[in-house]
Amino acid sequence: MKEVIIATKNSGKAKEFVRMFEPHGFQVKTLLDYEEIEDIEENGTTFEENAIIKAETVSKQLNRAVIADDSGLVIDALDGKPGVYSARYAGEQKSDEDNMTKVLRELNGVEPSKRTARFYCALALAVPGQDTVTVHGTCEGVILDEKRGTHGFGYDPIFFVKEKNKAMAELLPEEKSKISHRAVALSHLAKLLPEVFKGE
Ligand SMILES: O=P(O)(O)OP(=O)(O)OP(=O)(O)OC[C@H]1O[C@@H](n2cnc3c(O)ncnc32)[C@H](O)[C@@H]1O
Ligand SMILES: [Mg+2]
Fold first, then answer.
1. For the whole model, what pTM was predicted?
2. What is the pairing mode between strands 116-126 and 159-161?
3. How far does the centroid of ligand 1 lie from the alpha carbon of residue 111, in Å?
4. How distant is the alpha carbon of residue 109 from its chain centre?
5. Hey, whose CA ends up nearest to atom 30 of ligand 1?
6. How far apart are CA 164 and CA 128, in angstroms?
7. Sign, Cα dihedral of 116, 105, 85, 187
8. Model ipTM?
9. Which of 13, 89, 143, 179 satisfies CB 3.0 to 4.6 Å to 99 for a cystine?
10. CA quadruple 76, 166, 190, 59: dihedral, nearest 10
11. Which atom of ligand 1 is nearest to 82's Cα?
12. What structural domains does the chain harbor?
């Protein structure tokens, strides 16, 4: 089977990529399978910059085609925060619970019509000897005032998906993988994959 490497250490993302790549006939490997690769400093100012940093760093180390995902939650009432700081919003411990608690506290008292937000996902594809390509996808929603649902990861329990009329964490994995920011971004990248992986 063809193999694609995703430069992520996030097990929630990893599961979603396994599901989304299956129909394309790819087996997914992540940095959870390459423990020797050290943490990469994500010091870009945009999702695209961070995705490129992660994809190119790992592509150079392995001399292989690598995809990276940089994503996060963009909340209008917080001027776009947590944005590129989504993973560490409440501190270096990268706790989903602490991050959600911080967002809910900051939006305390903000009326529903002003709680609009979107998930954003940038994907970068780095191939040795080629220019790196980026694509992105978004998913529009509203920040709830309490957590709902048990699926997914990250901010999913406090993100109400307009299109589905449910919290993201209330969607089954197969539903999220059709409509998420990550799914939209990957749909843009999909057309490039046959050419990049034709030798495999
Ligand atoms: O950098 P890698 O190793 O891929 O893993 P990470 O968790 O640090 O990933 P990011 O730097 O891209 O930070 C993204 C954060 O945004 C949040 N996030 C991204 N996609 C999400 C999704 O589909 N559902 C809920 N939260 C999401 C979640 O808190 C992630 O930790
Ligand atoms: Mg990260």
1. 0.97
2. unpaired
3. 26
4. 28
5. 87
6. 39
7. negative
8. 0.98
9. 89
10. 60
11. 16
12. 2-196 (3.90.950.10)
